[in-house]
Design a protein that fits this description.
Helix 4 (91-103) packs parallel to helix 6 (132-147) and helix 6 runs antiparallel to helix 7. This protein has eight helices and two strands, in the order H-H-H-H-H-H-H-E-E-H. By secondary structure, it is mostly helical. Strand 1 (195-197) and strand 2 (200-202) form a beta hairpin. Strands 1-2 form a two-stranded antiparallel sheet.
Amino acid sequence: MVAPASPLSSLPLACAALIAVALLTGCAAPAPTPRGEVKGASTTTGELAQSDLNRMATLAMRDNLASLTLLMDKLYRRNPAEWRKAGAASREQAMEQVRTAIEQRQPWAPLQGRRDIAALAFALAPEFTGDRVAAFIVATADMLVTAHGGKTEFFLLDSLDAQHLYNAARNVESAVWLLSQRRNAAGQPLLWADEIGPQGRNLSFEREFGKVIARLDLVAVVVTEKYRRAAISYVQGIVGGTFLQFLPVR
């Protein structure tokens, strides 16, 4: 007569079954939510006249100006009174006017002829009474273009100054700090941007400004590395010409 199986003897089989079910469930888990993909720009004939550094600087400038457009939209949404100061019929119209001024490097009348860092300082002055969002974005864009030698696209004959790019990154850092710290006559921030409070946290402005700063710093480092490597290559050529010559074998 066969003895009945002990309940304890079935425990290993039950555990194995549970593990198998868990593994199958994990394999059947849904894929992560898509968050987009890298999209390269269309190839153009102009790229034939660009080095890798030229192309990188061009793309960085394109993305930095796109970041400023995004920040302008976000600032107008949080500060709707600003676009009304310029008499625009809508937020979209105000943004289009700013984009046109940046693309064509037109002077912005409320800045009273100031350009570059002088315009940026005036846009962040408590006494400025015009559309501060527009003035701030136009001045920042003008400062960035000035740091890049007045250009937004770069080709083989163009050169970039690494220190100017580095300075531009520090200027953006200073502007972000002033934007958060300075107050108007009523004791309010010059512009409402990032927010940390009982209702939640909104640090999207800081993140987007951080992208601009990071791109500037990266291009500055790569420009510096380019000239450093050129000097090293020159020395290697001299050393190679002297010590790495083929020797006669007969």
